[in-house]
Amino acid sequence: MNFLYWFLKITFLLVVLYVGDTYLKNLGWWSVIISIITFILGTRLIDKKFDHYNKQYFLNRLPILADLEVGQIITLELFDGKELVNRVYTGSRSTEILIGAEPVLANGSEKLLQGMKKTRWVKLNKVKEIRIVT
């Protein structure tokens, strides 16, 4: 999937450069500006499509992701056999989940900073199962 992503981006860059060089050369600097804007918009579209695909894939594989709320205590079971028990769900991206090691109960800046140091991103392709701890 990563190969396809970068292949599409590089191919799109080459197409934009070819079109800019061939058809827009009589516009001068405007051809450069048009090419840059086209490339930025095109790569943004590619990123959105891949993010949407990844999100749908992981929601189908781990349907509990749709029900998770910030601050819930969860347990992650990884494919390599490790279990991350009693972690705090903090947020997620299309391919990763952010978890904290322990809940921060005090409002002091030292406790908050200590809690922030213990957060980490876990790639969803390494997660076998997610369970909500009640």
Q: Overview of this structure, please?
A:
This protein is α+β, with helices and mostly antiparallel strands. It has three helices and five strands. The protein has a five-stranded antiparallel beta sheet. Helix 1 (2-22) runs antiparallel to helix 2. The model has no long low-confidence stretch (mean pLDDT 85).
What order do the helices and strands come in, and which of them pair?
Elements: H1 2-22, H2 29-61, E1 73-78, E2 83-92, E3 96-100, H3 109-117, E4 120-123, E5 127-132
Antiparallel strand pairs: 1-2, 1-5, 2-3, 3-4
Helix pairs in contact: 1-2
Tell me the structural class.
alpha+beta
Q: How many angstroms does the end-to-end distance come to?
A: 36 Å
Secondary-structure element series: HHEEEHEE
Tally of strands: 5
Shape: elongated
Q: Strand order within the widest sheet? A: 4-3-2-1-5
Largest sheet: 5 strands, antiparallel
List low-confidence stretches.
none
Radius of gyration: 21 Å
Tell me briefly what this model is.
The protein has 134 residues and is an alpha+beta fold. The chain contains three helices and five strands. It starts with a helix and ends with a strand.
Write a concise keyword list for the protein shown above.
134 residues; alpha+beta; 5 strands; elongated
